[in-house]
Amino acid sequence: MNQSLTNLPLPGLAHLSDFGCIEIKGPDSVRFLQGQITTNAENISTIFLSLSAMCNPQGRCVALFFIGKIDDSVILILSRETIEQALANIKKYAVFFKIEINDISDQKQVFGLAAEATSEAVKIPSSVGHEFRIEQLNQPENQIFSFYLVSEKYQSDFDAAVVNFRKCKQGDWLYWLNKNRIPWLDINSQNEFLPHNLNLPELGAVDFNKGCFTGQEVIARMQYKGSLKSHMQLLQTQEPVTVISKSKLWLGDKTVGEVICAAANDENVSILALIKDNYLENKIFRLNNENGPILELISKI
């Protein structure tokens, strides 16, 4: 990825209750996933998570997730809202493969960590939970960005291991993720955006050399022959508003973009939105209608 983390204060450890897990296991797991995800399934790691997506034949993202491996099982960490459609999508391609695909969100709690490596690393026994580092963010050496998957029966052991650790709300953690230009999908935004709309090639979440996968023809055409006229941008507002994905952005009496995802901390709401390039000289946009809440463009991506 070309960009590095900003100097935004690191939030700490958060229980990401809005995120769940899909497990794929069986002797054909890697071969099956190679034809379905945007990254190289042969590189799935037990140590590092990578950002990846699953697309429909039109190249639109059905699911956006972090992917890794625990023993012989491949794990996808993604928004709970998107799991039902993601499962329906991949199961129709799985009938000729020796694999099992299951939603294990009720078995694994997801925690996110963004902290200083020198003083705030969370050490837990492997019997309590699995730690994945995030490999694509190119964060400074003194920072950690990790996910922890913890089984319910070991929740008390995990709580004891992190009792003195700096905690944060899920909203704080997602706000930090947003500010670092890392999008996610919800039920409204599934099947709506191309990987390029979400900046996924720049995030290292598309491998154009791995061979065919569902939606690959459309995505490759956009990469090599297309001319993208809208790009994902970061905005924020201090107004206490609820921002819903796919809400329209307005400039005067024109709609010029739409929301991909949004997150709020105690002070601001950060928004990742797809905005038409020829309107980016403007710094102020409106949400929902021409008189709606003011959104400020933070920087061009």
TrEMBL record:
State the species of origin: Aliikangiella maris
Q: Name one Pfam family in it.
A: GCV_T
Q: Which domain of life is it from?
A: Bacteria
Q: Read off the InterPro entries from this record.
A: GCVT_N, YgfZ/GCV_T_CS, YgfZ/GcvT
The record's listing under SUPFAM superfamilies reads: Folate-binding domain
Q: Which residues form the GCVT N-terminal domain?
A: 12-114
This protein's name: GCVT N-terminal domain-containing protein
